[in-house]
Amino acid sequence: MGKTVEDSPEKEKKKLGAAERDIVALGIAVAAIILFVGAAGMLMPQVVQAWLGEGEAPDLMLTNAVLLNIALLIFGWRRYNDLQREVAERRRAEESARLLAETDELTGCLNRRSGTPRIDANLLAARQTGRALAVFMIDLDNFKQINDLNGHQAGDQVLTVIAERLRDAVPKDAILARIGGDEFVCAFPHLADDRERVDQIASGVMKSIAAPIEVNGLFLEPTGSLGISSSCTSDDGESCPDADTLIHQADIAMYHAKKHGRDCHFWFEPQMEDELRFRNELESSIRRGIVQGEFVPFYEQQVDLETGEITGFEMLARWQSPRYGLVSPDVFIPIAEEIDLISELSECLIRQALKDAKGWDPRLTLSVNISPLQLRDPWFSQRLLHLLIESGFPAQRLEIEITESCLHENIGAVRTIVSSLKNQGIRISLDDFGTGYSSLAQLRSLPFDRLKIDRSYVAEMSREGGSSDLVEAIISLGKGLELPITAEGIEDANAVEMLRKLGHLKGQGYLYGHPEDGATTRKRLAELKLLSPTAEKPADDGEQGGDAEPGQRKAS
Ligand code: C2E
Ligand code: CA
Ligand code: CA
Question: How far is the CA of 179 from the centre of ligand 3 (A)?
Answer without folding.
Answer: 40
